[in-house]
Amino acid sequence: MPICARSGPVRFPSIRISSRHHPRIIVRQLASAAYLLILCSIFLLQAAAAQAAPTITLVSPNTGSTAGGSIVTITGTEFTGATVVRFGTSAATLVTVVNATTITARTPFRLTAGTVDVTVVAPTGTIVAANAFTYVPEAPPTVLLVAPLTGSTAGGTSVTITGTNFTGATAVSFGGVAATNVTVVNALTITATTPAHVAGLAGVSVTTPAGTGSGLGLFTYVQPPPLVVLATPPIGSTAAI
């Protein structure tokens, strides 16, 4: 049986000392036993460290929108090789094991607000930090600025809309008419193409899963100047009439 085992008793060779033994032999036997003890202790400590389960000490930030998308840093121990991070029962995305003590991840969408557990699954075990993250209701968008401020009643003007909480936007309208080519650049910026509309001021609305936000009179439709295609007759006198 090995001298150092992961389970069960640890046995060392028996040492018998009598007055007939030379002192050097006694010292050699004791040194050998001490050496074996040190080796065994190191082995057991390494084995215990290799089997240590992960721990979670901090989740930052510990709140985020139910829309998901928050980048969270999880601090703890024994994260090497971690494969899964969950918020509640939903798997996080963009999971990155920075090192043995740090993981970053993006929170998943959650239908309702509330507090959830955070789970890390690593090769040496699974750790659950109870009630470590709180989902808060997503705020509706706000529309603050449109650039440029004016465009043709024929539509087709490319505009940039600035505001807040644009993540997940599903629609943009000008005066109640849907815009086209809508692109959510980030939570603060949307680009779109204006639809045709009568001349005058028009409100701009952005719709997300959390609701609709509007900016009144942010865009002005102007009538384009008339386009002269043909004059008849094509020539005339220079004399005044």
What keywords describe this structure?
mainly beta; Immunoglobulin-like; 3 domains; five-stranded mixed β-sheet; elongated
Shape: elongated
Total discrete domains: 3
* Low-confidence sequence ranges: 5-10
What's the CATH topology name of the largest domain?
Immunoglobulin-like
Q: How many strand units?
A: 18
Rg over CA atoms:
36 Å
Percent helix, as a range, is 10-25%
Largest sheet entry:
5 strands, mixed
Average pLDDT metric: 85
CATH architecture of the largest domain: Sandwich
Number of helices: 1
Descriptive account of the structure:
By secondary structure, the chain is mainly beta. It folds into three domains: 1-51, no CATH class; 55-136, Immunoglobulins (Immunoglobulin-like, Sandwich), CATH 2.60.40; 142-222, Immunoglobulins (Immunoglobulin-like). Helix content is 12%, strand content 46%. It is built from one helix and 18 strands. Strand 8 and strand 9 form a beta hairpin. The N and C termini lie far apart (124 Å).
